[in-house]
């Protein structure tokens, strides 16, 4: 739907009116036949029809284009009243800046910021409402540090609240201790498995070294036996030499 034409100051060109809702164009699109529509209006129309509502030429969403620049400029320059005029806002500004104004307008209805409160109030009156809102929160005046709602003043009991807080802290501490315990056990198990694996690797290496030493000793004994044999042969050859 477009902007209510009654909000505008002065004459509004016919070409700047939506061909469907007959209000001033909002977020406009234009068909090849140059008829212009609000985006929401033409999309809703094309759900049930396949032609232009003005001249019945066949169109679909894919042929719709933004408004010509000169028309867009004319549209943006139109002057209109704030939507909160009936509430007391006297602002008149261009269509181009109306959204920005209305987002910040002191007469706009906004929700109370206190959780649980459903009151809608004018922005300019928000501070006054927050000062008396039954859902406003504050710190306990007795010093327990608990944040209470005004509606809970009569039910608030510092001792009970502190006891509840203490129980929550105790439960949280127990949970953290258990988590730390499980984490330490997990780390110890991991280290234990690592040590066992390391021990197994070292044991295998020791066995391999023993095997290598055994082979080396066997080789040494073989070499010594060969040396003795060689020496005996030399001695025998020396004897034979002497006899000759």
From TrEMBL:
Keywords: Coiled coil, Ligase, Metal-binding, Zinc, Zinc-finger
Every RING-type domain range: 18-56
Signal peptide per UniProt: none
Keyword Zinc (UniProt): yes
GO annotation, biological process: regulation of canonical NF-kappaB signal transduction
UniProt cross-references to Pfam families, sorted A to Z: zf-C3HC4_2, zf-TRAF
Protein known as: RNF41 ligase
Gene (UniProt): Rnf41_0
